[in-house]
Structure formats: structure tokens, C-alpha cells
Write a structure and sequence with these properties.
Layout lengths: L2 H8 L11 E5 L2 E4 L4 E4 L2 H4 L8 H13 L10 H14 L3 E5 L2 H16 L3 E5 L8 H5 L4 H4 L9 E4 L4 H7 L4 E6 L2 E2 L5 E2 L2 H14 L2 E5 L14 H4 L5 E4 L10 E5 L1 H4 L15 H16 L2 H16 L6 E4 L2 E5 L3 H10 L2 E2 L1 E4 L2 E4 L7 H16 L2
Parallel strand pairs: 3-15, 5-6, 5-7, 7-10, 10-11
Antiparallel strand pairs: 1-2, 2-3, 4-12, 8-9, 11-12, 13-14, 14-17, 16-17
Helix pairs in contact: 3-12, 4-12, 13-15
The structure holds pyridoxal-5'-phosphate.
Pyridoxal-5'-phosphate binds next to helix 5.
Length: 380
């Protein structure tokens, strides 16, 4: 029985997959159906920050699984409220809306911005990625993702990232919100300049629009801070979160200020699954593990070490914490060869590798990754 051939016949062919069937994971390692081990520098796209099969996570999630999975938002459940309280502490935001993915978190954020301001226009940035549903796709830049699905949302403009002069031309009194990633992830790990972020907030003062941070990929310790916004010292009006929020269990969240929240009315938005007790318990467990094992600090420390070692091999290494981009000539080939050598890597384009390992990674695993990458770049 050939599973890969079955996949071709059964699954919508929208994904480009690596030639491996993964079966289980432990810590920073994954195992395929033949029991072969791989060092995971992908973490399910920056999701499984606590590593695979973390015992504390399994215990908490299984406990909730046995009690209650889902009742809908027609009722109150404690894990949702407890999670909101925890998120308030680590984000400094005031109120929270729960959904099930990054794109939904962005979708909710855009709706809340329009409702709160009564304005239509959104300004996003070139090379931004915010998701694939029609609203989120409308603020996503890549032509290939957008074109077949037009018409998308009207009143969206794209400004040059890190170029204040261009942004100044695109915002005005009609602007509802400016949405940005503080470190562009899918684009290949490109951080925003401090002065650029500062200028966005000066323009916000002048025109009264809202600022939406999309921290879907940068959140929950990935960059060596709980959220990338701490590197910049600015608080957004709305913030989208997902990916690492529950270690791969589907959940997303749009967090907002009280000013935004007070403009929302019953029925303005909703989600059947959003914030169910199982997903919220998975998220709470994740946050507790990140705190208990000091994974934010480890992301900073190991990120610095990883980038230092990568610079021995590559000229252009970018990033913050354990969100790292590396410019290469032949990304696809490197990814394929690394897989054969027991290392999982991700290419965001033919010229760029994205390295986002679990935040539990230790020096010895970084050294192993560098050893494999050294062998692989020398064999060419
Ligand atoms: C991954 C990502 C999204 C979309 O998240 P999904 O869960 O795939 O819908 C949105 N914004 C950013 C910055 C992302 O990295």
C-alpha cells in the first residue's frame, strides 16, 4: 500500500510536501514510519515550541479531554476565561476573542477594526503574509496567492515595508487600520526597523487609525520575548495570535484594547469551536510550560548561538531569537538533501531557508544541525 500515491488520489493537491511520512515525535526529534529519526528545525511551521509530546502537555490536555471537549459559546467555560486572564498578563492587551487559526485571527481583527473606527481602508505591506481566507488574503501581498481569487476586499493598499515615505502617502483619515508583522515570517524572516514602527505610531496619532500587529508567527516566545512587540516597545490596538499558542492544537485569538472592545456588540462576530475548553487548556498548558522551563530565555540564548554558528557557513543570516532566515542559492536542494541526512528544514523561497526549531532546543542539537549543514554545503 503506497500512502503517498493514495494521498495524490485523495487529498486536494494544494501542498508541496517533502518525501517523508512522519509518525511520532519526541522533543526536538521526529520519527518516520520506518523509525528513522529527524532533527526538527521546522516545528510544524513555528508551532510546536515546547517540543513534541511534552509530558506536561499530554497530562493537562488528556485530563481535559476526559472531562469536556466542546459546548460552544452559548455557555460559559472556565478554561476560556482562565486563558484570557493569562493572555492579559503576557500581552498587556485588555480583551480577547478566540478562534481556530491565524487567518481567522486576522479576519476577526480586520472586522473589529472596521467596526471600531467606522472606516473602510486598510494599509498592509509588500511581502506581508496574513492568511488565506478572503479577508486575510486581501492584506496578503503575494500575487500568486491572490490573483486566482479576485475580487478580494476593496480599499486595501500595500506600502513598502520599512519605508516611512511610502507609508505616509498611503495613510489618511479614511484609514481604518495599518496591519503588519513586526518580523515578516513567510517572506523569509525580515524584521521591521525601530524607526519605521515608531513612525507608524506617529502617523496613528495624526490620522486616528488603529494599528494591528500580526504576531501569529512571532508570538509566544519565538523571538526571545513573549511577543515581538516587546523588542519595539509599542502596544497595538489589536493583535492577532495563533501558531505556537497551543503547541499545534488549533486555536487563534484576536486581542484588543478596551477602546476597541467597547465598540463591539453581541452578534458582531463568532465561532462555533472558538475558545472551546480543550483548545484553551492546550494553550494554557503551553504557556505554563514556556514559563516553567524558561523557554523565552532559551529562545534568546540559543537563537544568538544558532545565528553565530550559521554565520560561519552563510553570509546573510537574519532574525531574532529562534526565528531565523538564511539566504542561500538553492533552498529546495538543501531542504531535500538535509532530509536525507536526518534534518528537517523549510524553504520560504528558492533563495531562503527559515529556521524555527522548538524553543526547547539545546546547544548539542544546534551543533548537530550545523554539522549536517556543513557536510551538506561542502558536498556540493
Ligand atoms: C501562518 C500565518 C498566518 C495564517 O495562519 P493560519 O493558521 O495558517 O491560518 C497569518 N499571519 C502570519 C504572520 C502567519 O505567519
Amino acid at each position: 500500500m503506497d500512502w503517498i500515491e493514495k494521498e495524490r488520489n485523495l487529498i486536494a493537491q494544494v501542498y508541496r510536501r517533502q518525501n517523508v511520512i512522519l509518525e511520532r515525535g519526541e522533543g526536538c526529534y521526529l520519527y518516520d514510519i520506518n523509525g528513522r529519526r529527524y532533527l526538527d528545525l521546522v516545528s510544524g511551521i513555528a508551532c510546536v515550541s515546547i517540543g513534541h509530546s511534552h509530558p506536561d502537555f499530554i497530562e493537562k490536555v488528556c485530563g481535559q479531554l476526559k472531562k469536556l471537549v466542546h459546548v460552544s459559546n452559548l455557555y460559559y467555560t472556565i478554561p476560556q476565561i482562565a486563558l484570557a486572564e493569562k493572555l492579559r498578563d503576557i500581552t498587556g492587551m485588555d480583551k480577547f476573542f478566540f478562534c481556530n487559526s491565524g487567518t481567522e485571527a486576522v479576519e476577526a481583527s480586520l472586522k473589529f477594526a472596521r467596526k471600531a473606527t467606522g472606516r473602510k481602508k486598510f494599509v498592509a505591506f509588500k511581502n506581508a503574509f496574513h492568511g488565506r481566507t478572503m479577508g486575510a488574503l486581501s492584506v496578503t501581498y503575494k500575487e500568486k496567492f491572490r490573483k486566482p481569487f479576485e475580487p478580494l476586499l476593496e480599499h486595501v493598499e500595500f506600502a513598502e515595508y520599512n519605508r516611512v515615505e511610502d507609508l505616509e502617502k498611503k495613510v489618511d483619515f479614511e484609514t481604518s487600520a495599518v496591519i503588519l508583522e513586526l518580523i515578516q515570517g513567510e517572506a523569509g524572516v525580515f524584521p521591521a526597523d525601530r524607526d519605521f514602527v515608531k513612525a507608524i505610531f506617529e502617523l496613528k496619532e495624526k490620522y486616528g487609525f488603529l494599528v494591528i500587529f500580526d504576531e501569529v508567527q512571532t508570538g509566544f516566545g519565538r523571538t526571545g520575548k513573549w511577543f515581538a512587540k516587546e523588542h519595539y516597545g509599542f502596544q497595538p490596538d489589536i493583535m492577532a495570535m495563533a501558531k505556537a499558542m497551543a503547541s499545534g492544537f488549533p486555536i487563534g485569538c484576536s486581542a484588543m484594547s478596551d477602546e476597541v472592545a467597547k465598540k463591539l456588540e453581541k452578534g458582531d462576530h463568532g465561532s462555533t469551536f472558538g475558545g472551546n475548553p480543550l483548545a484553551c487548556t492546550a494553550s494554557l498548558a503551553t504557556i505554563e510550560i514556556i514559563e516553567k522551563y524558561k523557554l523565552v530565555e532559551n529562545a534568546e540564548k540559543m537563537g544568538d548561538y544558532f545565528m553565530k554558528r550559521l554565520r560561519e557557513l552563510f553570509e546573510d543570516v537574519r532574525g531574532k531569537g529562534l526565528m531565523i532566515g538564511v539566504r542561500v542559492e538553492n533552498a529546495e536542494e538543501i531542504v531535500k538533501k538535509a532530509l536525507e541526512m536526518g534534518l528537517l528544514l523549510n524553504a520560504t523561497s528558492e533563495e531562503n531557508l527559515r529556521i524555527v526549531p522548538p524553543l526547547i532546543i539545546r546547544k548539542e542539537e544546534v551543533d548537530l544541525a550545523i554539522e549536517i549543514l556543513t557536510a551538506l554545503t561542502k558536498n556540493r
